[in-house]
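Table S2 (continued). Query chain:
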Amino acid sequence: MKSISILGSTGSIGVNTLKTVEHLGDFRVVALAAGSNVEVLAEQIKQFQPELVAVKDENCAEELLRKITNYELRITNLPKILVGQEGLIAVATHEKAEIVVSATVGAVGFVPTLHAIEAGKRIALANKETLVMAGELMTKAAEKSGAEILPVDSEHNALHQCLRGENSKEVKRLILTASGGPFRTKSKAEIENATREEALNHPNWKMGDKITIDSATLMNKGLEVIEARWLFGFDAEEISVIVHPQSIVHSMIEMVDGSIIAQLGVTDMKHAIQYALTYPKRQKNCLEPLDFTQLSRLDFEPPDFDKFPCLRLAYDALKIGGTMPAVLNAANEIAVQAFLDNKIRLSDISRIIENVMNEHELQNAANLEAILESDVWAREKANIFLRESLASISIAK
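Corresponding output:
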């Protein structure tokens, strides 16, 4: 029986990981980290009896303690409760954990995941920001410690499966598929004026708010391009994006002889999660198989870089290198939250990011300090541009 820790246990990936663990039956959950969703975390503690849990802050810890000591939950073995980044790192490096599922949203999972890599754990990685911010640092740490990094994102998980057993020198390019999000067929003007509710209405996947907005702007695919570079060692020019609205083909590789190898499956993250947990073995999962007789068509089209400039900015950041991907990521997080708070338009997200990137003085990304400094700088600069944007709107009114 293998032991696992989960960073982000109450999010969609974390919840599906626990469903997968329940199905497989041969995993023990030793530690869980969540943010402020103590209601769900309390139920997870009741079912899986972890030794350690982490929450956002002391208030969340106090509320969680009240819930898990409630007689109705009947939790006999109370876990140790930690808070903040200290708690996240403790969950990520739990001595009994052989596998760490990194499923937090945004940069918060960066440092804890690095500690897990340095500890030599197998990382089931769903937090793409980790490799976006510090791909070079993370991969070097994994080489040194012997840690495995297995992708949980459906696209990278598909690439991992396609590349399995292939000679990388015979691979011409990687092809990441994108659903196109809710605005694939919309005009640039319609995207400019899109509402929060429209942007959160993803046609294929049920995800958290931040990643759903990233999908609406195609920034999610841009971040995946950067992640693919570090996971598989291919340059920006060797990584393509193609829009595939049905989300049945999760990704493909093109060989030097023109052959295409694709991974197909139902649109359910439990498939990728189970693959990362059980690799190199394959086990029967709890999903219905893909029924080709029910597929009327599979469509493919090129991405529109004019309507979705965030994808172009991600390619630019990858080509520039250094600390630019970390700056891209930080500025995007600030801008996306501003959109979710109804402060800016969807199209303002890319404008803020581009302005921040243009102001950045590039640094080498081989050390943790430079990455963290660039992350802080980019957030501060993005907030400055955000305030200027809000001020101009106020004046116009």
